From TrEMBL:
Belongs to the DHPS family. This is Dihydropteroate synthase. It comes from Facklamia lactis. It catalyses: (7,8-dihydropterin-6-yl)methyl diphosphate + 4-aminobenzoate = 7,8-dihydropteroate + diphosphate. It holds the Pfam family Pterin_bind. Keywords: Folate biosynthesis, Magnesium, Metal-binding, Transferase. GO terms for molecular function: dihydropteroate synthase activity. SUPFAM superfamilies: Dihydropteroate synthetase-like (SSF51717). The lineage of its organism: Bacteria, Bacillati, Bacillota, Bacilli, Lactobacillales. Pathway: Cofactor biosynthesis; tetrahydrofolate biosynthesis; 7,8-dihydrofolate from 2-amino-4-hydroxy-6-hydroxymethyl-7,8-dihydropteridine diphosphate and 4-aminobenzoate: step 1/2. Its EC number is 2.5.1.15. The gene is folP.
Length: 331
């Protein structure tokens, strides 16, 4: 069992703000400033289009915006640091200047994180859990920014069939060959705990306190369909360990596979296929909100915000106002 901050009192501190376990779920809208992201590559690649998209997501109910300048989908290619900075910094700066949204930068490179923090980013969303770039924790620590710490099965199970289609995410030498062999025998829950322990070691060495970390179980990264769903099912383990939870499930392949197995159209070149993928993703947001997941990362705002309202209201039913409804009026 992991060492907890304070059992049942999980909180996440960043830039003078706090997300507390038990709060309504926050919807985090994705703005990919990339030409090749798996579902919306090129749509927001120009700076002004990205800024406009961020404002649209905010109007749809997103309280947080996650800005990324490099696709991490299967088959994607590495983006040079200067190019990634060029993509994300103007967007972050504009969102912070023109809105009240929380802004995170989706990067595993410390130089990009530093530039984004200087531009006003509140959070660094690191899909390698501080392990891909050994300087990452040291860059975040002296700032007031928080960090999303995600487990990355691609790093710890590089030979797994589900991992081989992904690009490399650094982390050279972080784990020994013996550790990698041991990880290959672990189930996804054991793997999550082992990975977080290593991330905590890096954070502690850099002086990055654990109350500035929010944990992400790494849904969709080199995992099987069963493993993905089981990690969602057990996301509340993160709360039991004394941390808040960040969940990114929107449009992931295991969702599309579920729809396909049920006979639904998943051809995203059609309006129906594209829409059904977001409907299914929103269903998971409703479940996550009911479970008390603090932040859910999504591609569209309205559907997920509505789903979170329902999930939050079920979870927090005892606190809701009693409203007596009258009869329907005849038309």
């Amino acid at each position: 069992m992991l060492t907890v901050i304070e059992k049942n009192q999980a909180h996440f501190n960043f830039n003078g703000q706090t997300i507390q376990h038990g709060d309504p779920t926050i919807i985090c809208g994705i703005v990919n400033v990339t030409p090749d992201s798996f579902s919306d590559g090129g749509m927001w690649f120009e700076t002004q289009k990205a800024i406009d998209r961020a404002k649209e997501l905010i109007n749809q109910g997103c309280r947080m915006i996650d800005v990324g300048g490099e696709s991490t989908r299967p088959g994607s290619t590495y983006v040079d640091i200067e190019e990634e900075i060029k993509r994300v910094v103007p967007v972050i700066r504009a969102i912070k200047k023109e809105t009240d949204a929380i802004v995170s930068v989706d990067t595993w490179k410390s130089e990009v994180a530093k530039a984004a923090i200087d531009a006003g980013a509140d959070i660094v969303n690191d899909i390698t859990g501080l392990l891909g770039d050994p300087r990452m924790a040291s860059v975040i620590a002296p700032s007031q920014a928080g960090a999303v710490v995600m487990i990355n099965p691609v790093i710890v199970r590089p030979n797994h069939p589900s991992a081989k289609v992904f690009p490399q995410f650094g982390a050279e030498g972080v784990f020994t060959q013996n550790e990698l062999e041991r990880f290959a025998e672990m189930d996804e829950i054991e793997l999550m705990e082992a990975y977080f322990k290593k991330s905590f070691e890096y954070a502690e060495a850099a002086g990055l306190s654990r109350d500035r970390l929010i944990l992400d179980p790494g849904i969709g990264f080199g995992l099987t369909k069963k493993e993905n769903f089981n990690l969602v099912k057990h996301a509340q383990l993160i709360h039991q360990w004394g941390y808040t939870c960040f969940l990114g499930v929107s449009r992931k392949r295991f969702i599309q596979n579920t729809l396909a197995d049920a006979g639904y159209n998943i051809d995203t070149k059609t309006e129906e296929g594209f829409s059904l993928r977001d409907e299914a993703s929103a269903a998971l947001t409703a479940v996550a909100s009911f479970m008390g997941v603090e932040v859910v990362r999504v591609h569209v705002g309205t559907e997920h915000h509505i789903a979170s309202l329902i999930g939050n209201n079920i979870r927090m039913a005892e606190t809701l106002e009693d409203i007596n409804y009258g009869a329907y009026k005849a038309k």
